Amino acid sequence: MCIKKMNxxxxxxxxxxxYIRKGVCYLKAVLKSARVSPExxxxxxxxxxxxxxxxxIPEEFALDSNVVKAGxxxxxxxxxxxxxxxxxxxxxxxxxxxxxxxxxxxxxxxxKMTFDSFEEYYEFLDGDIYEDACYYQYAFxxxxxxxxxxxxxxxxxxxxxxxxxxxxxxxxxxxxxxESYERCEKVNKKCVKQWLNKFNACDTYEQFKxxxxxxxxxxxxxxxxxxxxFFQYAFDAQxxxxxxxxxxxxxxxxxxxxxxxxxxxxxxxxxxxxxxKYDFSQASVATNRKRKKEVKDxxxxxxxxxxxxxxxxxxxxxxxxxxAFDIPDEIARVKRYKEYAEYCLKQLEQMQKEG
Length: 355
Prior knowledge:
Blueprint: H1 2-15, H2 17-34, H3 38-49, H4 65-73, E1 77-85, E2 90-100, E3 106-115, H5 118-124, E4 133-134, H6 143-146, H7 152-155, H8 175-200, H9 205-216, H10 227-236, H11 241-253, H12 259-265, H13 271-277, H14 285-302, E5 306-310, E6 315-319, H15 327-354
Parallel strand pairs: 1-4
Antiparallel strand pairs: 1-2, 2-3, 5-6
């Protein structure tokens, strides 16, 4: 009799083990979201009152489950495409973040979040992994996935988000399209020239800030990013040192996503000068420190592995070491900054020639 009872218990235990594991996973997620830190509560309160926007949430709380859920509930963030990036071998979620522009209108900006593991991705979405999703070539064989009961057929149904092919487009342009394009180019160049003059006329931080604010509300900003004017202003600052101080003060105080622009400036001016003038102060103490450290690392370490063969133009960067960093990635990164800066200068010179 005892043996029978033991056998029954043994069968029940191992039959239900996968459900027990699911329960454990669920409880862990519930317990994790139940713990709300005082800082997270403050951020959620700010989102509700409208005093804080999603894009200004401190980076260390950007993926906090409670903050993310609150943003979704308030309609400030909406998830779109999600799934597995077969090339990068990471998971991703595309989100629309909603905020009010300077005119008070509700607008959105697309952000892409990436995750190294399926577990992190699953927790970020709170289990919402089916809608608008593509997991092409992902096997769901990690330990976390094995503990969950998925509808694999549904998960693997979509093979790609891209449904169009080259056959859906025509390379031929009509004469009307060509003439319309040429008219637009003339108008665009005229507008850009006007904005170039407005930016270059700024001699104080207050003037520069006002011009940037007006530019963001203009139609030109929809096709020409403001960084274009940052870089041409930076080249002009080679001859007008006051302009460099103005630009660095703006990037430190008002341009939240300006880390890449600051690193790009290190290829135009002396990197140590840029580092000394960069004092990011737009977020929490930890985020401010992190932003400044990123630029410091770029100056002290990443640029140190390159030999500048032309110190005047800071061009022709070649690697000195193949061990210090991932050279291909670093070359590509530095090259992008350098090429974009040089592209801005060439466009400026071309416009000046055209008069």
